[in-house]
Amino acid sequence: MNAYRLSIKGEIPLHGETYVSGGKNTSLAVLPAVILCDEPCVIENLPDIDDINVLYTILCHLGAKVDYQRDKKRMIIDPTSVNCTTVPFSFTQQMRASYYLMGALFGRYGEASVGYPGGCAIGSRPIDQHIKGFCLLGAEFLEEGGMLKLKGERRGSIINFDMATVGGTINVMLAACKAKGNTVLANAAREPHVVDLANFLNSMGAKIRGAGTSTIRIRGVQKLSGAAYSVIPDQIETGTLMIAAAATRGDVLIRGCIPTHMEALTAKLLEMGVFVDSFDDCIRVRLNKGHRAIRISTQEYPGFPTDLQQPMSALLTKANGNSEVTENIFDNRFKHLDEMRRMGAKVHISGRTAYIEGVPELRGAPVNACDLRGGAALVIAGLMAKGITQVYNPDYIHRGYERLEEKLSSLGADIRLEKTE
Ligand code: EPZ
Fold it and tell me: By Cβ atoms counted within 10 A, which residue in 259, 264, 344, 372 is the most buried?
């Protein structure tokens, strides 16, 4: 339990303008990718979140020279001094994306020894597809004392994923960049941050084609040159802010986002009767009346993102009618709904589907964040509820959202971090 909690006074409509930070999940892929490079790189637009701090310490542990200019959201990384291919469990347990060090270290040095990854408890999160890809590229895989070990030559291959795994696609792309010969990733994930990583790698001289489609082709290269790269804005933070605007019946302009990444959510909000106006690099979300109940079914991109399922379910607790939310990607991503019941939400869960009966009012209550996006969902529920909501374990939220309290406060929310008793 953290020594802090978020305290939220609800029923205040959000008004005004805010901005989106750089993408968490894209940064967690791009930063390890620098290890593949033969020269220093500059990575810009990094979000100031705990997961980036963990990755910073891992890069330093490996021997890279890292100048992290937090205030400028920039890291200058010289990977040529990397002198270690082992990442201990003490680091990896803090963050799931630490497994990208497997692909980056194996892709550069032909060996890697990385502790089991941690991450949000949203179901069993195997990495069999990552291992399958590494082995097809020539790695021998060994699991020893909680360490995942890879060693071997890197040669091109054809990898057909059993599901469109984001992590698997990214990890095997990292490992294949400098492999001898050509690699094909079939049934690859199409998320925006897969495309962002491919763009970064290509800016260093990699030869990757087809990112954003389900078939990615990689021609191995020997050398990657230094590059300066700015990561894309965070798709999930954009969606979370859009939902918060609708949930409080506000009128918010979200700047610095990519509206085309938000189409699945925008379509659902329009279906609910929310006003959404998309411009080149900003989105305006307005609502001044009730919203309709809908059905949501999470899918790989470009379908409705699983990471927005939890924030959206908060909005649905006060919809006019009964909604259905089916979670197809992870097998345990409804824990936040137990907490919302304490606020008066009417929810019934059966298998992969949550049945949400819209209620006229939520009441503030003390609730526990259990994971990153579930914590964001509880913040949204607190913004909607009558009275005060206290969200415990806000560290989950700070892992993946940069200054969320500040952004919401700047829009008029009454939200602040306070010490617990
Ligand atoms: C990434 O997780 C994101 N994390 C998740 O965001 C996101 O929810 C997920 O992609 C889906 O979009 C990062 O980018 C750091 P997957 P990842 O591999 O890579 C199964 C957040 O809140 N699977 O696409 O773990 C897996 O169990 C986080 O920012 C296997 O069975 O997602 C899951 O059911 C939460 N074997 C499904 O596939 C494998 O080898 C999707 O997993 C790999 C995955």
Answer: 372
Query: Residue 239: what pLDDT?
Result: 98
In CATH, the number for domain 24-230 is 3.65.10.10
Statement: residue 2 has pLDDT above 80: no
Both tokens assigned to 253: 């302009």
Residue 308 in contact with ligand 1 by CB distance below 6 A:
no
The SS3 of residue 47 is: coil
- Residue 215: closest CA among 164, 263, 286: 164
Ligand 1: does its nearest atom lie under 6 Å from the Cβ of 183? no
In this structure, which residue's CA is closest to atom 14 in ligand 1? 25
Report pTM: 0.97
Atom of ligand 1 nearest to the CA of 189: 24
pLDDT tens-digit map of 288-313: 999 999 999 999 999 999 999 999 99
Atom of ligand 1 nearest to the CA of 127: 40
Catalytic residue list contains 120: yes
Out of 41, 60, 84, 120, the active site residue is 120
Question: Regarding beta strands 353-357 and 346-350, do their DSSP bridges make them parallel or antiparallel, or are they unpaired?
Answer: antiparallel
Of the options 3.10.129.10, 3.90.78.10, 3.65.10.10, 3.40.50.360, the CATH number for the domain spanning 3-21+234-420? 3.65.10.10
